[in-house]
Amino acid sequence: MDGFPKKLRFLTAALVILCMGVMEVAPAAAGLSPSRVSGTTSIASSRDADMLVAQRALENKVVAQKLRDYGLAPAEAQARLASMSDKDLHTLASATKGLPSGGDGTGAIIGILVVVILVIVVLRLMNREVVVR
Hints:
mainly alpha
């Protein structure tokens, strides 16, 4: 502490005390916020719910690529989806429940890589050797 002059130490301490005192003057208020309608939902029937599930499945990159491979444009797929019967649409929506909505799995791969890197960093910080054979 000999490197700092006495006046600078005093002013720094006074500034810290002042800042902490100002934060203590106004206590935080917490409470529940009132509920409100977030907007109108477009799901009015089971057909609308099935249509939404099927449209999300069409957003999947793998599904979109397969449709393009078969010669079907995305606009044509949407038009055919809209003209399907209720039973066929429900069957399609039930079959697509296992598909990820619009994803192709890269997020999971990135997540796994981040976890592996974190484990390696923690082991290196603990002075452990990381050997990959």
